[in-house]
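Sample entry (224 residues):
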Amino acid sequence: MPRRRTIPTIVLAATALAAAVCSLPGCAAGTLIGGMAESYRRTSTRTVPSEYDGLRDRSFAVLVSADRVIQSTRPQAVARLTTLITARLIEHSGASGVVPAAAVLEFQFNRPQWVAMSYDEIAEHFGVDRLVVIDLYEFRLNDPGNAYLWSGVGAGDVGVVEADGPLGDDFAYSKAVAVRFPDQDGYGPTDYTADQIAAVLEKRFVDRVTWLFYDHEEPYYPDY
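Predicted structure, serialized as tokens:
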């Protein structure tokens, strides 16, 4: 059944006000209603549906990988993102089961050869219906060669392997995700610490990854 769209109370009030005012000659009803609606959008949120809801009533594991540059410059990034993304999806995705983040990280640490395994083999190893794969290909706090200004970027490819589906090792769903912080240029170490920049990047990246899997609220004009 299609969703019913509701009209915000403030927009209804603006319409009624415009109707009353427009009994006067030369009324600009459209301008008044548009201005009220725009004011509402700038201070409110909207519901954004999930892009992939295939975790519901299924078991899953989150697998994050990163290249050697990221592992050397931000060695905690993979562990933190694995933990945060797993926790968020447990809370919101409606999944029936999950492999704890610590177990996935232990698997990666103790079996360096996991990178040669196919995704469906990894899903089978964990005994899950879905494998959520994040290939983190960029996570930096500065532009290369510029340590004086922050220009944080977190980017990766998100994919889902359906172990019980027909595609085998191919992704049933995939999406590229990229976030930035700060939102404006000109900030340096006197404004934010490196840990603060990394924490905001992590949160924004986790939001954008996990929001793909459940209905959520976003500002009408999001910062990221």
